[in-house]
Every structure is written in structure tokens, then in C-alpha cells.
Amino acid sequence: MTDISIFLKLLNNTIVWTLIGVAFFSYGKLLSLLAFATCNTQWAARCNYWLSALKTLLASLPLLGLLGTISGLLSTFNFMSVNNGLDMQEMISGGIATAMFTTQLGLVFVVPGLLLHTALRSKVSNWQVNTACAH
Fold this sequence. Notes:
The protein is mainly α. The protein is built from 4 helices and no strands. It has one domain.
């Protein structure tokens, strides 16, 4: 199997696309609040509204990756039972590699999101302190 066919096989997975969708939605919302919005009372209210929801979405990424691993391993074991054991070593190892990819993807996607979340929470806290000190 070539590298391109392995990559295309990985993209033919609903959980991979769910991980990508949740991660990019979270990144987009965090970046829009962090970098592209003017700091004022409405901005602080929007940030406080979104911070807990975004933290929950980011926390779901490793769990979605684990779900992908479990479903991939189940399909590999199902393949093994249908084909009477370990006849096709390459197919089985490829199935396990595909299964582990979703966990890796979930962990890789959560780290930048948590960093952005922490930066936004810090920016909101600093703005609130500066606003309180100014009055």
C-alpha cells in the first residue's frame, strides 16, 4: 500500500472528520475572540459565554480519538474473526495503525486549542482587572 492510499484511507473515516470539524470550529472561535475582536464589555461577555463551551469541546477531542481507536480495533478484530485469524498480517497491522491514528489526531488537536483557550482566559482576566482599576 502506498503512502497516498493509506492517507486516503485515513480520511475515509467519520471520526477523523468529526475531530477536524470540532478542532477547527474551536480554533476559529478562539482566534476570533482572541485576535480579531475589540476588547470591551460586549467582548468580555461573549468570551465568558464561550470559554466554558470551548473548554468542553476541546476536552472532547481526545475522547473522540479514543472512540475512533475503539471502533478501528473492533473492525480489525471483526475482520480477523471473519477471515479465521491472522491470515493477512499487513491488513491487520494497517487496521491497528488506522485505529491509533485517531487517538494521535485527538491529542495533537487538543494541545493548540488548550493554549489558545488559556491565552483568551488570561486576556479576559487582564482586561477585567484593567477595567476595574481604571474606574
